[in-house]
Amino acid sequence: MTGDTRSGAAGVRDRADLLARFMIMPAIVYIAAMIGFPFVLAILYSLSDATTGDPTLRLVGLRNYKDILADPVFRTSLKNTFVFALVSQSLVIVLSRVLATALMAEFRGKWIARFLIMLPWTAPISLGTIGWLWMFDSIFSPIDWILRRFGLLGVPGALLGPMQNLYWLGEPLLAMASVVIVHVWRLLPLATVIQLAGLSSIPKDLLEAAEVDGARAWRRTLEITIPLTLPIISIAFLFGLVFTFTDMTVVYVLTRGGPIHMTQVLSTWTFFKGIEGGDLAQGAAVSLFMFPVLAGIAALVLRVARRTEVV
Amino acid sequence: MTGTQAFLRKGRLYMILSLFALFSAFPFYWMVIATFKRDHDLFNPTNNPFVFNEPATMDHLHLLFFETHFLTYLLNTFLVGIAVVVITLVIAVPAAYSLARWARGWGEMLGIGIFLTYLIPPTILFIPLSRFASLLGLQESLWSLILIYPTFTIPFCTWLLMGFFKTIPLDIEEQAMIDGLSRLGAMVRVVLPLAISGILTVVVFAFTLSMHEFIYALTFISVSAKKTVSIGVPTELVRGDVFQWGPLMAGALIASIPVAVVYTFFLDRFIAGFTMGAVK
Q1: What is the ipTM for the molecules in this complex?
Q2: Which one of A17, A23, A283 has the shortest CB-CB distance to B94?
Q3: Which of A7, A201, B53, B165 is the most exposed place for a label (fewest CB within 10 A)?
Q4: Per the CB < 8 Å rule, is B267 touching A45?
Q5: Predicted model pTM
């Protein structure tokens, strides 16, 4: 640096190495303070006996983990978290494929179709779920109304039973199905847009060449489209998993974990234990059960992303 | 392809799309109906729920705007959103530029590190952060949300902006420096104006993501007048065990649609930032 021709401040403004460090620093400090440190604190809490009334950290070893593993509600939550995420995302992948293929075509009124289809993702999730809460209402559910109209419900000998309503959020299995439906509804737009990006990246001449060679539609799909878009399908699947796996809003708004904890998931159980119940230690321990799965998913995402860049 | 085949194909296309659009938009249609339906009509299980069996009414909207804190929720959401946007820009723009321009070994590691923060979701962080908020005396204050929401906007927006900065050729900056600008001057006066569409995208996402947020707001805020729409509507418009369906649906609808419209315009960029270039 030529200090004689420039002032010290101008020198700093030209020192790329210093600038680089200086400009990245606020982000690192913030992330360390507000994500890194709380994460460590969550681990410490899970090994302590802290409550909201007495939040001092006294380490008690693995006692909390032992306690929650023995708790049947926790085991239901753990199972549900996996079931909801895997079932809903498997459905989402299949449906988003169909929808993305349809949206590839050019047609009039495409923007309105796109806007409507994207609504579940673009509107705030807690508010969208409220719409579903009303749809699943125990008495005024429009789904039940349609079923009654078609004679599938509400008359003696009807396929779904003689009662007037199905009680979507009151029957354990139906309540679980409701949660899955809302997750599918919410994540379908995201997966569709990701799949659309994948489909439009396939070279057109490749498909045309295959068509000229006489390959039928299903063979083109099986041998060209699916292999070429597999990395993107897996990205959509993995991100969908992360979202549903960690989501608390849908279950909280829809069922609050009921009936009798049958739809409880790790995130809601963390909230009910740690915040409403005031047991910070056990709440933190419950939430940390999400971490290994998330770490696995992230490793997969990085692998897929890296491999795609090589291709 | 013959005319009939084309017609059939078109028909099938519209049918598939209509089914999906119906599934996606139905809860919102349902909100529109409930917003304007009289209670007497709404709460009759034999009435056709999809149409107005009695004249429409503005009662629910009136109740929502004048007898609940709905307008306060909107204002709170707006204030928090603006503050989060400012903080996000101040921190993420320089960080992204730094990573895009000067990242060699350590930069790449840092970039991946920032990506990995996706791994630690709000559902793990809200318990320790609730202690932060109470230690700082920020419970029941919008400041707690303003302080904490950048935990999800900064990593995401840094990733997104990094991609934008990488598309701006280095030559332009070098030329500006030959013309007498300093390194920093070249970034501020030459690169930032070129990245304006990226920055606008970040503004939209920081705002919509904070508007969507639920868990932190639910954990830190319980005073009605301090709530944001995403928690105010689901928790406060239910009086005791009685759901005020009309106002509840009206509130959900009014808060959803504007943000959905804006978001739709920027959706493709959201996906690009999100999948870190795995989708090209």
Answers
A1: 0.86
A2: A23
A3: A7
A4: no
A5: 0.88
